[in-house]
Amino acid sequence: MTQPPGPLPHGPLHGVKVVACSTAQAGTVPYMLMADLGAEVIKIEVPGVGDNSRGSTVLPGKGSTYFETNNRGVKSVTLNLKSEEGREILRKLVARADIFGQNFRPGAAEKNGFGYDELKLVNPKLVYVSVSGYGPKGPNSHLPGTDSMAQALGGIAQAYATPGQPLKTGIVSVADETCAILAFGGALAALTHARATGQGQKVDCSLLGGQIRLMGWTLTTAMWRNRDPVTGQARITGTPERPGISASFNDKEGKPLVFQLNGARPWKTAMTALGFYERLERDGFGDLGVVITSEDERTRLLGLLDELFATGSRDVWVAKLRAADIVSAPINTLLEASNDPDVLANGYVTEIDYPKYGKRLKVHGTPWRFSETPAEIGIAPELGADTDAVLGDLGYTAAAIADLRARKVV
Predict the structure, then answer these.
(1) Which residues pair with 363 in a beta bridge?
(2) Which residues does 320 contact at the CB level (< 8 Å), separation at least 6?
(3) What is the pLDDT of residues 210-231, one digit of tens each?
(4) Please, what is the Cα angle at 171 between 132 and 68, to 5 degrees?
(5) What does the pLDDT read at residue 338?
(6) What are the catalytic residues?
(7) Backbone angles phi, psi at 213, to 5 degrees
(8) Contact (Cβ atoms closer than 8 angstroms) between residue 376 and residue 36
(9) What is the rounded CA–CA span in Å between residue 128 and residue 407?
(10) Structure confidence by residue, pLDDT tens digits, 79-125
(11) Does residue 2 have a pLDDT over 90?
(12) Contact by Cβ (8 Å): 321, 337
């Protein structure tokens, strides 16, 4: 009887080959995710210097949190792309690759001989991913971009704003990460097409474009109504006939929680479960719909709920709401989120060994679970750690590699 084939070494992207001339966060995370899922990712770095982010947020005895988070599991190869020999090696790598990625300042890749038009001649099936700040078109397409710039332009500052206070960008790089995840998906979509048809293509993603997508249906509502949404403590949505609310409140110890619901019946169910309904009904809030069109009523309701939630414990309120099948959760800090029981149970945060530091440290896990080809978490490479092996695979002898290194090509 024929035995079924065994599982792949790890990850559903086993066999996919990636070359990335990328730095920072949005430019590296797409390929780190691919490495988690089994792809061979070759990261090109400047000889003797490397990705500048190797020096970002270096903690004593633990290395760079920034570089580690964004580059784990990849291979590091040093190449001087300003030299013709360095570019020739890059072209040899690209000839074998499925995906190529870069996030240089707009125009720099083309100027240095590895734009899409050049590399597709080397490999017509190549998926070429370009990450920029503003996108390939528009009045500012030539400018560099950062996470805070995209947050500022993309609307997320208002999404978490408090009325009467200045709009602020956040401390978490949501623009970088959103763009990276979209670049990841776009690259694999184009790879599917390339494998089916033999035709590669260029995929453009931007920090700004990712932020606009992240605004979701709330942006659609703002555009259709031609006015900005209500912000602050509560998100009031829907119509008087089908009202919705997502709101945060503090318990008696100042610990915050959130609940969200849509519709008149869930409103009554939630408030009854909390023991609030009779009081709310006496004050005119038996029907949530009354707050949809009245700012005064919204303010009055939120003040009353503030008062009621401050009489008890967050854990009790959340438990009562969940028991009534109402969505509710404590509002975690980042550190609390890293220790949340569901986060840990699903492996969204995990631990791995770092022999270099003699420590076992908590890191991001993977957001996916594959039943047959599980992801595998790696660690970030030392600068140039894989140069000799990769060049050897291309046919370079040890003497030739030593010569290239002596001339600072690698």
Answers:
(1) 350
(2) 273, 274
(3) 999 999 999 999 999 999 988 8
(4) 70
(5) 97
(6) 176
(7) -65, -40
(8) yes
(9) 29
(10) 999 999 999 999 999 999 999 999 998 899 999 999 999 999 999 99
(11) no
(12) no
Distance linking the first and last C-alpha atoms of the chain: 51
Q: Which two three-digit tokens encode residue 41?
A: 């990712």
Q: How far apart are CA 86 and CA 410, in angstroms?
A: 7
**pLDDT, averaged across the chain:** 95
Distance between CA atoms of residues 108 and 112, nearest Å: 6
Type of residue at 408? K
Contact 145, 206 (CB under 8 A): yes
Residue 5 pLDDT class (50, 70, 90 cuts): low
Distance CA 206, CA 203 (A): 10
Spell out a b/e string for 257-289, using b for 16 or more CB atoms within 10 Å of the CB, else e. Answer: bbbbbbebebbbbbbebbebbeebeeeebbebb
User: How does residue 1 score in pLDDT terms, banded at 50, 70 and 90?
Assistant: very low
Picking from 234, 403, 366, 243, the residue whose alpha carbon sits closest to that of residue 306 is 234
Query: What is the rounded distance in angstroms from the CA atom of residue 396 to the CA atom of residue 402?
Result: 10
Nearest CA to 28 out of 15, 16, 41 is that of 41
Check pLDDT > 90 for residue 160.
no
Query: Tens digit of pLDDT for each residue in 174-208?
Result: 999 999 999 999 999 999 999 999 999 999 999 99
Query: What does each C-alpha distance from 387 to 45, 207, 394 come to in angstroms?
Result: 10, 31, 11
Q: Are strands 63-64 and 58-59 parallel, antiparallel or unpaired?
A: antiparallel
Are 79 and 410 a contacting pair, CB within 8 Å?
A: yes
Whether the Cβ atoms of residue 94 and residue 100 lie closer than 8 Å to each other: yes
pTM: 0.93
Separation of alpha carbons 67 and 23, rounded Å:
9
Tokens 């099936």: give the residue. Answer: 125
